[in-house]
Amino acid sequence: MKMKMDYSFYIKPNGSAGGLALWWTNDVQIKILKARKRFIDVEISVAGESEWFGTFIYVPPYKEEKKDFWEFMTNLRNGSGDRWLVMGDSNIVSSQEEKIGGVSFNVNDARSYFGFVDTLGLIDSSITGGAFTWSNQRSEEDAILEKLDRVLCSPGWNSFFPKAIALLDIAIGSDHAPVLVFLKGFKRKYRKEFKFESKWLLEEDCTSTVKDSWIPISQPRNSHRFGSKLRRTKFSLIRWSKVKNRVNNQRKSELQRKIKSFQGKS
Fold first, then answer.
1. Which of 116, 130, 220, 233 lies 20 to 30 Å from 251 when distance is taken between CA atoms?
2. pLDDT, tens digit, for every residue of 131-180?
3. In angstroms, what CA-CA distances link 131 with 141, 152, 186, 265?
4. Where is each Endonuclease/exonuclease/phosphatase domain found (predicted)?
5. Residue 41 belongs to what H/E stretch?
6. pLDDT per residue over 205-224, tens digit each?
């Protein structure tokens, strides 16, 4: 995978399990403080602004190891670091609302996580764009959806970045959906509302574009599959219409040049 980044830091996986990677660009200054197989702890400064701490995590899936991990994280800052962001795969759900399918939520499984959050007074930030960040990628009654990935921050960090927002992106090639944090908020560029043009029905390749887009797709629920087909068809039509408009505009320009060349002639 090609990344347009200037620097990188890696924790090698154990076989095919685990492993962490951190990439950053020239406008970000990062100092690696501690790194283990389950976390990378750094000091960060963006564009020369004041420093803050960031810890990127992959929590072990086993109950006893989870307890040890959260106890370690509780003591990591040793009372320092008022501006602290913690994000990554927590491997825990904190309520029944954070999961669909599978074994019911058990509060005992999350006690060590709650202890970490409560002891340090951290804020579990909401993630815009979806309720679940992980799927077992199975369908219908076998589907399990959970919110495993989290963005936690201290009150000091939250005050320093009051406009920060966490967004859920599309899961491609992974059972986890990526979570993006925009420190100064996120301004979505205005996009013209999509409308199906009736004149497209006169074009034979419009029908084939829709048919090619409306193919079976693997999603856990019927509603998800239907929504995915609609989105894919929408974007296919947008791309098709741009090409069609470009061809039509070229043809229009050609005809206009011919008309202009005949003007003034008998």
1. 233
2. 899 988 887 788 899 999 999 999 999 999 999 999 988 777 788 989 99
3. 19, 16, 19, 69
4. 11-176
5. strand 39-46
6. 898 888 888 876 554 555 55
Tokens of 183: 């420190």
- Residue with structure tokens 């190891």? 65
Does residue 187 sit within a domain? no
Q: Which domain holds residue 240?
A: 198-262
- The string over 222-249, giving b where at least 16 C-beta atoms fall within 10 Å of a residue's C-beta and e elsewhere, is eebeeeebeeebeeebeebbeebeeeee
Residue 210 makes CB contacts below 8 A (sequence gap 6+) with 233, 236, 237
What are the contacts of 19-26 at 24+ separation with CB within 8 A?
A: 20/56, 20/58, 22/56
Domain of 150, CATH number, reads 3.60.10.10
Are residues 225 and 136 part of one domain?
no
